[in-house]
Amino acid sequence: MTSRAGIDSSTTDKAGSQDSQNVLVEMRGITKRFPGVVANDGITLTIRRGEIHAVLGENGAGKTTLMNILSGMVCPDEGTIVIRGQEANIESPQDALRHRIGTVYQHFTLVPNLSIIENVVLGTPSRFVLALNQAEQRLREMLGGFELTVPLQTQVRHLSIGQQQRVEILKVVFRGSEVLLLDEPTSVLTPVEVKELFGILLGLKAQGVSLVLITHKLEEALEVSDRITILRQGKNVGELGPAALAGKDDVELKQRIVDLMFGGLPPQENGGRAKIAAAPAVLSLRDITALGDRGTLAVQEMSLELRASEIFGIAGVDGNGQKELAEVIAGQRLAVKGRVTLDGVEITNCGTSAAVKAGIVYVSDDRLGEASVPAGSVADNLVLKAIDRAPFSKRAMLNWSAIQANALRLIHEFEVKAPGPWTRLSTLSGGNIQKLLLARELALQPKVLVCNKPTHGLDLKTVRFVLQTLRAQADKGTVIVLISSELDEILALSDRIGVMYNGRLLATFERDEADLETIGHLMLGVRI
Amino acid sequence: MNRRSFVSAITPVISSGLVIAAAFLVGAILLSLLGKNPLQAYHVLISRGLGSSFGVSETLIKMAPLLIVSAGLLIALKASVWNIGVDGQFLVGACLAGVVAPKLAGAIPLVPMLFISALAGVLGGMLWGVIPALLKVRYGLNEIITTIMMNYVAVYLTSWLVKGPFKDPQVVPPQTAVVPEAFRLPPIPFTPVHIGLLVGLIAVLVVYLLFRNTTFGFKLWVLGQNPRTAIHAGMRVSRLTVLALLLSAGFAGLAGANDVLGVKGMFQGEWNPGYGLTGFALVFLARLDSLWVVPFAYFFSFLLLGGEIMARSANIPVYFVDVLEGLMLVFFAVGVYLERTLAERDRRRVPATQGG
Amino acid sequence: MSAVPLEGFTTALLSAALIAAVPLLLAALGETFAEQAGLLNLGLEGMMLTGAFAGFFVALNTNSAYAGLAAGLGAGVLWGLLFGFLAISLRVDQVILGLAITILGAGLTGFLFRSLYGARFPTLDVSLPKVAIPLLAEVPIVGPALFRQQVVVYLTWALVVVSSFVLSRTRFGLELRAVGEHPFAADAAGVKVFRIRYLAIAIGGAMAGLAGAFLSVADLNFFVPGMTVGQGFIAIAITMLGKWKPGRVFVGALLFGSLRSLATGLQVVGVAVQPEFILMLPYLGLIVALVLLAGRTALPGALAIPYERGRR
What we know:
Chain A folds into two domains: about 190 residues, 3-Layer(aba) Sandwich (Rossmann fold), CATH 3.40.50; about 240 residues, Rossmann fold (3-Layer(aba) Sandwich), CATH 3.40.50.300. Chain A has a six-stranded mixed β-sheet with strand order 6-7-8-3-9-10, with helices on both faces. Chain A has 19 helices and 22 strands. Chain A is of the alpha/beta class. By secondary structure, chain B is mainly alpha-helical. In chain B, about 75% of the residues lie in helices and about 0% in strands. Chain C is globular. Classes of the chains: A alpha/beta, B mainly alpha, C mainly alpha. At the B-C interface, helix 5, helix 6, helix 11 and helix 13 of B face helix 4, helix 10 and helix 12 of C.
């Protein structure tokens, strides 16, 4: 490689010079501003050869931006990047790849209509006419540690999430990357798949690859990392090297990291809820079958009985029919078979507005793409589902003063940080938007509230606010269907837990019967 | 209103002004390349249209169909329903009005006669609009392609109709019977301009109020912003889509009736004024803002008229106006880009601490 | 009617259909490249008209049909690059842009034609040689129609095979499909998204320009303002009907080429149908075909959506 003479003189590493021999990448004083946000504020990060380096921080701490800067997706406003001792200018993903930095994004970057092998060779230098057979041969030689049980000609859209992630890793390794950035790689995986992923990562480390693991999960960071850097509000607030991490199970160490991550936010009390009284079901689903957007069977013969005040958590890997189920309950998707009844009245396929009138509301996970009009005002968005009702509409005419009053009231009640009711929704932060959406649905005084990933991507304070609100709503008697891929959240909040796999409800547990491992296996369709 | 929001309210006007200036500049370059004097040409374009009271009233007469068509386009485009079929809807509406009006003229009093003829125009337009609307909601066919196809079908169909079944047997050219002068749209008192202009102004005002004050308008707006959101909010998207296209087509048909009852007095085969794309350009230049449509309609009407005068007296083909319209749309698109870039730079400058 | 004229008529009709299919095929193949790369070029009509005028103008002044075709192609490339600059680099709304180019193309060519020639309609005195393929051209009825055509017609057919190969088997084709389906993924993999899209729209423009030039230079030998009468839009629909597969696009173009030539054919044979009804056929037929075949097709994932790095 290149001469390392330059590194020793220029390194700012505090750990000492023998360590600097191994320095591969240094990010110095990185600052990046987005409209309204300073995402990275003078961050310095050092990546060494053959280490697993976790970048830990809660949502919104600036982890993803930092990684996007290194992968060439975002250009920093200030700061320099030094790679193998030479200042590097990374202006595009192509530049990053040329510096042998490969990235596995949180939202996978595979083209669904291309085959595995086409995805792997995409973007690599090759002759004009593709030689896929040769590439396949090369790939097979490298496959060693990977178990891809499907032919390389399979279109990527047919693969499971875990398999897709392996293709992603394969893709970057195929290009000979020496640094591998992984953005929240475990967020879409089941506990079993997480174990397998860590196996793969340790294997790569043994081959001398440096891995940067971006995560908000402390336990995972502790499990595999040699070094942890903690980010909070766009700043590097601490780095723990191998020595500091030696006492892994030390409670004090964990507490120290948590303090760094959250700046000393008090822990949340997990007060237990009273047992749900035996009562007739409020919402009942019988043999619900529904098709997905592509016409495949997304939900298959699902039956459920939910009582008043019950929080029913649905665990499962994304894309196993949870969203479609939520949409069927909300009247937004047709059930091809089965019945939905609310308080004994059948409402199957009654349509969204009838479902809302009957008392079923739905907080979608797609906040900007489905649940709101980003270009509209806060007030507009808060009446989206009630625009036909008094007092917002009288004889088909809008009542703007009622619409404004409604917005002022909800902004206040839900502690939304918004300049006013006529502010454009898209200028608010994700947390405030989610608060508004929740406020809108709860203002409809629902009997049933369906939530799809209600805390996804939110900062911890808002996460707590959302969970507390849900719990309080359940205490008022509302049935809550909580769909989430965050098992911790489901375990913390639910009275009962169901596991969905491949469109079916594999099992349900009472809260005290549920344990992480069993549920984790069921999420993969493994019955024990 | 603080300074900042005043600036943002006025920005579209400024940038539309720049867009027009840029189009005229490129037009001038084109004219000089062909050895024509652009200053002289623009002088003809402006002085004839603006300078005389005759020019002004001619412009106002021509403005009526543009206003009516634009009112309809506003409804469709705000709901993101791309009705490119205005020309076809206009022709079918005009043809039906041209068939009905001469039959009723003299048979019933003027007011109901005009009213029924106008209604025939509206129905004709809607008839032509309902087909692409149903194809869109029933079969998922993109309305851009189907409405354009319907335009061509309308041209051939109407010219066949006035050659055959609806032809006035008294005359040689293919056309419907002529509506006697006494049974045309009466002038606005003390002006030479017929009341079509008022109809157009009212149409635009109605659309303005529709989007400002009605739940229906609110729903159309949500649909236009994102159909998925409209579905999520429990709105009946198919119905809204059909209604948006139908109303839009109805206005186009009404514009056809306006030209038959107010200007031409009959429907002629192979007559196609092509207001659709002009309306499209002007509605976008007005930024889909209902009230701004009025001055822009005047401006475009003036251009169409000036174009004809230029063709006659300065020997510049009428196509020059199409060139200007096309250039304005292109520059409009560039203008939107520039505004967006400036706005983003502006927001980036505001320091903030709130993450997430 | 004896058998021999009927045979001749059938040959003429078939031959006319094949010629009428050429501009549709060229434009639709170009549109296939553009749309596969995620660009919806609704300006095809304007680009074809420009190609037709440029081809006519150059052929008239050079007396060379090939120079005319080349000029049409060049004019199309220029339009393609302009479309690319606005849609790719400036992220302009592609529907508005396409319609703007349609208006501008029609206006500009009409304006130039009338400015240069006034009320005259000069005709071209150029012709492209017809080549008969030995043996095959001797087959009755079909032979002369299929295998005694201008070279350009054969080249167009070859283009179908070439396009199909390029799209499915080459690095460029792979990158093109990736860019149209998931530009972020392509970018992350190191594909130069903008470059691929510019290339795709340049090809689309080139083919549209060539299609127009074929119409004025090779087929009709004259230019009239607005002479494409919606063929650009028909080509866009054929692309959709063909589901972005060159082979299927070929079939679609032949179908609508036949419908267009039917008008002339029926008049020749003296069938008493109002010409308006025959002229309507392609447009009506297209709507019917879309209803039967195209409904709710899966569009390329990123069609008409501009790409901006670091933002999704």
